[in-house]
Each structure stands twice: as C-alpha cells, then as structure tokens.
Amino acid sequence: MIVEIGHYALTLALALALVQAIVPLWGTLRGDEGLASVGQSCALGQFAAIALSFGALVEAHLASDFSVLNVVENSHSAVPAIYKISGVWGNHEGSMLLWVLILAFFGALVAALGRGLPPILRANVLAVQGLISSAFLAFILMTSNPFARLSPAPFEGRDLNPVLQDLGLAIHPPLLYLGYVGFSIVFSFAAAALIEGRIDAAWARFVRPFALVAWCFLTLGIAMGSYWAYYTLGWGGFWFWDPVENASLMPWLAGTAFVHSVAVMEKRDALKVWTIFLAILAFSFSLLGTFLVRSGVLTSVHAFASDPSRGVFILAILAFFIGGALALFAWRAPLLKRGGLFAPISREGALVLNNLLLTTTCVGVLIGTLYPLALEQLTGEKITVGAPFFNMTCGALLLLLCFVVPFGQSLAWKRGDLLGVAQRLSLALAVGLCVCVALFALLRGGPVLAPIAAGLAVYIILGSLNEIFARVWRRGAPFGLLLSRARGLPLSAWGSALAHIGVGLTLMGLAATAFGAETIATMRVGEPQTVGPYEVTFQTLGSRAGPNYSEVVAKAEIRSGGTLVATVDPAKRFFPARQSSTTQAGIATLWLGQLYISLGDQAGDSAVAARLYWKPLVTLIWLGACVMAFGGALSLADRRLRIGAPAPARTAPAQSMAAAER
Amino acid sequence: MTRKSRRLTLIGVALGIVAFAAALALYALSDSIVFFYGPSELLQKNPAAGSHLRIGGLVKMGSLVKSEGEKAAFTITDNVNNIAVSYQGLLPDLFREGQGVVAEGVLEAPGQFRADTVLAKHDERYMPREVVDALKKQGRWQEGEAKP
Predict the structure, then answer these.
(1) Nearest CA distance, B38 vs chain A (angstrom)
(2) DSSP state, A204?
(3) Which of A154, A336, A639, B9 is 20 to 30 A from A623, alpha carbon to alpha carbon?
(4) Least CB-CB distance to A580: which of B1, B94, B128?
(5) Does B147 contact chain A (CB < 8 Å)?
(6) A408 within a domain of the structure (yes/no)
(7) How far is CA A290 from the centre of its chain?
C-alpha cells in the first residue's frame, strides 16, 4: 500500500510540475499576477509529493519488501540498515528519484525564500524549473518506475552490489546531486532572464547564493567520490579520467567559471551575456553527465543495467533543454543591455582570463570524453583517451590558471596596476620559484609537472594569505585594531582567499603523488617489507565473518625506524549472495600522508599478495577540496548575499516613491 | 581605449588560448589514443610490436599461471583466436577464468602481450561492453548469456 502511495505521489508531482511549468508563464505573458504566483504553491506541493514518494521507496527498502522489483534487485534482508537506505539511490531508478527530489527541493527553496525576488522573475524561474521537473518525472514514470511490483515475490533479494556497500554511497551521490542539480536553478534563472529580456546586477545577487551552494556541494561530492574510489577500489588511485568522472568535472569547471563571472556582474554590471551563457553551459554539462551515466553508452561502475529506450528519452530531454536554451539565448541575448567597461589589466580582466581558461579546459575534457564515443559510432574503431591526454591538456591550462589566480585576487576593479601587484606578490613568487627549482634538482629527470605544480601550490597559498594580510596590515597599528580590521573584511573576501588556498592545497597533494612509493609483494606473516620511509609487518592473517560476508583479514604493523606508528587491518571480503568480493584497503594516516595496504590473493596459510603504497601529502587532495567548499560557504554567509537581504540603499528611495504613489 | 580595441584585445586573448588548447589537444591525442581489439581483430589488424593497446575477451579456462613475485600469465580468448598475456601485479578481485577481462598494455610480439593494467567485470550484471562486442563479432555471444 505504501508503495502504491509513493507511486501515486510521483504521478501527482508530475501533474503539479506541468501546472508549474505552464500556468506562471501564461500568467506573466498576460500580466495576471494571480496566475503568475501559482508556481510557488506548485513548487512546494511538488516537493512534498516527491518527498513522500521517496519516503515510500525508503520504507520499502527498510522493510525489505521483496514484492517490489527495485528492492529485490538491490537489497537483501541481511544488509545493514544504513545500506538498505543508501541502496535506495544505489541503482538507476532510485537515483533518478533522488535527482528529481533535489530538483524539486531547489524549486521549493526559490518558492519559499524568494520573497525579495521581482515577481515576474520568480514566476519565470519556477516555470522553467517546473519544465525540467516535468521532463524528468515523465522519464521516471515512463521508463524507470522504481515502484514496479514483482509477482510472485521472492523470499530473498539479490543483494546490493558489494562495491556499493559502503558509507561512501550514503554520502557521495546526495552531495554530488545537490551540486549537479543545484545548477538547474542557475539555469532556470538564466532562462527566466532571457524570457523576460532583462538582466541586471540584482539578478546576479539573487542567483549567486544558489550557484555557490551548488558549487560547494559539487566540490564536496567530487572530492568524496574520489576518496571513495581511492579507498574502495584497492589500486590507490583517486582519479581515473573515467568518462563518468569527467561528466562531473565538466559542470564543476563551468560552474567555477560561473561563480567568478557572476561576481563581476554583481559588482560591475559587466559580462552579462557571457554569464548567462555560462549558466546555460553549467547545467547543460550536468544534463550531459546524466545522459552519459544513465543511458548506458558507457560501461563503468556508475552505469547500472541499461535499456536503450532510456538513453533515447534522456537524449531527447538533453536536446530539448540545451537546444532550447541556446536558441533562446541566440534570440534574446542581443536584447540585453551592455554592461560596464573595464581595462584589460583589471580584476574583471583577470576574471575573464579565468573564465576563458576554465571553459577551454572544460572543452578539452569534453573532447577527450566524447571523441572515443563519436569515433566508435562513425568508424567502429574502439579507442580510449587515457590520462596522458587529460594531464597534458587540462594540466597545462589549469597550471596557467593557477599562475594567474593570485594576480586576479590582488588587482583592483576597473583598472589595475600590474607592476604594483607583482611587487606585492614578489615574496610568494620567489618562494614558489625556490620550491620548484629545489624539487627539480631533487628529482632530476623525473616528472616535469610535479615540481611546477608544487611551486605553484606554494605560490597560490602564500599569494592568497598575502592578499588578506595586505588588506588587514597597517604599519604600527596595535594588534586590537588589526583584529577588528580583519573582522571588518567582508566574509566574501575571506571566502575567496580560503577557496584559493584550498586550490593550492589540492594542487600540493596532486604534486606530491610523484614522490610516493609502491611495492607489490607476497607478504609472509612476521616478515617486514619496506615501503617509502616505513616498514610494514603482517602480524596475523586470519578470516572472520561479517553480517553478509566473510573476509580474510591481516593485522599489519607499521614501523618507522623500529617504533610502532600505526596498525591497520586490510581485508578482502567475499559476498556469497552475489558471489563477488571487494577489497578493504588498510589505510593509516600519518601526518598528511597515508600508508595504503590492499590485499590480493592468499598464497598459503601464512602468506598473502599485497600492494603497499606510501602516499605523502595525499590527504591534501581532499582536504583542499573541503577548504574550497568551506571558502564557498563562507562567502555564502556574507550578509550582502543572503536571499531576502534588504536591497541596497540606493534603490530605497525608488521603493518609497512607489509606496507614495499608491 | 575604445570599446572596439578592448573587444579586439579580448578576442585576441581568447583566440590565443583556444589555439594553445587546440594545439595541446591535438598533440596529446596523437600520442595517447589507445585502441581496443579482441584477439581475432588483433590478428587481423596486426599492429606493430611496441604499440600501446587494450585487449579484451574471456580468460581461457585453465590458462592462468601464477609465479613468484606476483607475476601472472594467462590467455585471453574469443574462442577462435588466443593471445598470451603476462602481467606483474595483483589481479583484480573479480578476475576469474572463463570470464570477461580487459587488459591494457604493450604488444611485445605478435600474440604476446604485456599488461600494465587488468580490469575485470564489476559484478554479474556487468560485462565489459568491448568484450561483448568482440565476442559478438565472432558469433560467440548469445543475448542474455551473462545474466544468471
């Protein structure tokens, strides 16, 4: 019964989404305020309906209702409760339901919090959001119904894919979707601005918090996914340039560009058309990612059992929204008024450069991702474009970008002084260069990118600190004054400095991969093995039973110069329900580096094959991403950016005049 | 500066970056494309020794030999033609004889392949698509065969 309620609520949500898509648009066209405001209650109602539907599916999974096909295929009565819940989105149907839930959540957010928005803009935004919702709800109901029943009901489910039985599944997809789908709101705002043919700095102020929220979550989601792959796959790799990973990187790159260009628009009323274009681009890449992952054109852990009709349906949605938005853009963008002027050497100029580099990188990733698919369709040749391609194209462009970052931060708006900025950054530049040269000398003939990246990382971190320092420090000022000056800096300044420091930290972690050590060996109990600066000894090797698996587990002691620094227990799990196994890497975090041990096949009673890695500074890769996201959250907390914050003073007289006229 | 000259600067910089990126991409593409072949296709195309390739098919029953130092040797087959593969490292969790596998590495001599990476299927519902296609080409695949 609960399952039927869920199914019904989903259908209801589709009806509400259709109303939300059509009626407000009609209302704004006819100038009927009543009709235009229908979107708000629809958006709230739609969110409630989808939440109910999602809740019903969670309940079916929790109760192990094996009359539901989705539960049978992706759950098992012995799976721990947390994986029963996360298993809801560990499959195609459920993950699409989560997708629309988050879509509806953002729509409801605009409806509930958008009181300060101009009514026409709000109505149009909700209409576009409703249109996206309708398309995806129709997709779920027609091709991937999560509530399909099975008769007769089997006694036991087929179990959740063991790779997915991990806390990572509970966290990674929701975070990633909050980011992915969060850009839908940005897209809706852009489309609404184009429909209305009007855009100004206020638009940028409204849309920036949404973009920042989406960006923060996407950053965290990608980092989480990468860490999950790192510890769960047992190869010690954290990024494989897999098409599915690229699919999440592309919206991130476009979104990062958008977050920067929308700042220019808000402050200087410039780059309007470009900002709109980026908004369309960011969500288009989200849709492209959904298509790549969900249509079955790719094979990867993320591609669940697929059926061709789904691919065609998503392709149609993709073509409609991207094509429609670009057509709207071509038609309406010339109507938008030109914005403020700026000299090429200025903060705006630097941000334009940032945008150019980010979008070019994004196109590079796009080519590397789609070229093999296109080639296969055209000639039947199967190729892969591997890491070397991406490292070269993206690496070079992003390192160039990293070099520009501190300059951009320090340049003044409108017209900047390049020489003055270079002087201010001289210390950071010098230290960065020293690090780079020292590492080159140390590695001698090793990888080229690593020392450059490490030097740049130091330079970005110092440059960002320098920017804050320069704005706070006054010669001879007492400490208390400095403190209050620091407190007086807008949060967005702290936020951007922190986010850039995060970029530096991640870059540092990436550069440090060149300095790691790797050993593959047969480990016998009691025999030490050296990896990097540490010795690893397996003390015991045994087996034990878990709730729905059995595992071979080793107890490994890690010593540095004879003293014990950590013990880990790497394991290899076997899941009888699916006849498959997973590797549970043993990871010891030593300072910022990690010692990573994963087990292979057992060779006799007291010996086992194992991979041992020493990865210096590796945690910085993900910590850096967390710092970036925190920086984004900090600028989100800036008072100026809060949704519904009072309008700036100069518009106040206009409002009171309007009030007087009434 | 006039609006026009500003715009020209912007377009100039943009074109410069795009040209740089295009040059990088073309250079990298010419260098890092890896072709995928099944055993029969490999025999037919006969790429030069030393080329970087991906080979896919089934692991031949009874062909897996493990030796000291984490070395493994096995045969990839499409039940028509075979290719011998050597590999040093840990085989993935899901590597089994008789099941689908993709190996990436270097062709050392015709019919002799040294793998750097071995990928096995992820679960019983997933079979590397390239492997399925390669088997289909040989007429060795019936739809639904992989499903339990």
Answers:
(1) 10
(2) H
(3) A639
(4) B94
(5) no
(6) no
(7) 13
Confidence band for B140, pLDDT divided at 50, 70 and 90: low
Phi–psi pair at A603, nearest 5 degrees = -120, 85
A392/B27 Cβ within 8 A = yes
- Closest chain B residue by Cα to residue A357: B17
Instruction: Report the number of distinct structural domains present in chain A.
Output: 2
Distance from the A32 Cα atom to the nearest Cα atom in chain B, whole angstroms: 41
What is the rounded CA–CA span in Å between residue A453 and residue A508?
Answer: 7
User: What is the overall mean pLDDT for chain A?
Assistant: 87
Angle between helices A243-268 and A201-233 (to 10 degrees): 150
Phi, psi of B10, deg, nearest 5: -60, -45
B residues 66..125 contacting A (CB < 8 A) = 66, 68-70, 88-91, 93-94, 122-125
* Rounded-to-integer distance, Cα B135 and Cα B57, Å: 7
Final residue of a domain: which of A165, A185, A200?
A165
Q: What is the predicted pLDDT for the residue at A653? A: 41
Reported ipTM: the value is 0.75
Domain boundary among A133, A165, A197: A165
In angstroms, the CA A25 to CA A39 distance is 9
Closest partner CB to B35 (pick from A382, A392, A572): A382
- Separation CA A628–CA A210 (nearest Å): 16
Nearest to residue A608, comparing CAs of A536, A503, A518, A657? A536
Q: Assign domain B35-137 one CATH number from 2.40.10.120, 2.40.50.140, 3.50.50.60, 3.40.630.30.
A: 2.40.50.140
pTM for this model (two decimals): 0.89
Range of the domain at A71: 1-165
Inter-chain residue contact A520 with B88, CB threshold 8 Å? yes
Q: Which of B31, B34, B93, B116 to mutate to test the interface with A (most CBs of A within 10 A)?
A: B93
Rounded average pLDDT over B25-29: 80
Q: Which two tokens stand for residue A147?
A: 């509530």
